[in-house]
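As a next step, we paired sequence with structure tokens, yielding the entry below.
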Amino acid sequence: MPVNLPNLLTLSRIVAIPLVIVTFFMPAPFGPWAGCALFAAAGFTDWLDGQLARRWHQQSAWGRVLDPIADKLLVATILFMLAALERISPVTIFPALVILAREILVSGLREHLAMLRVPVPVSRLAKWKTALQMVAIGVLLVGDAGPTALHVRTVGELLLWLAAALTLITGYDYWRAGMSHIGEEDAKVVKPESVH
């Protein structure tokens, strides 16, 4: 792996995962706010590593592989911890599952299309989805440790539902685009005649 700042920033998001987990077991209000701060810093590195890699011409295959893995590990771990420790309501587990299922679907689709040398650009709506999802998770990390008058946990859950709605839309868009390329690839395959 090329040792450069963008790749190190990507790796820092993976390193942040156990640190965020630890904050779940710290007393409130410090623990929840510390978890939110770590998650916000990790989100900032996600933006920064891409900017630096493009500006400094340090884009690499390692970076392209590690970046989405780091993002998905971080998001999946936090959603799991929020659900396991009942820091989200039972019904809010549904949008969390939608988000995780979509990430698995798109990752598999991207991997297959990469073998076909078909690029899958990130749409503007997908970027909005990611931004909303990150804000929702950050708010949920604070949860009940936030100001009572702001109903922080409720706001975070509503934002997660909105992110899940955008997740379904963008996931369908990726699926439709991917299936068209896979259909074209299947059409090129000449099936051998059966031998009886």
In short: The chain has a mean pLDDT of 88. Residues 152-188 form the longest helix (37 residues). The helical segments are 5-23, 30-55, 61-84, 93-115, 124-142, 152-188. The chain has one domain: 5-186.
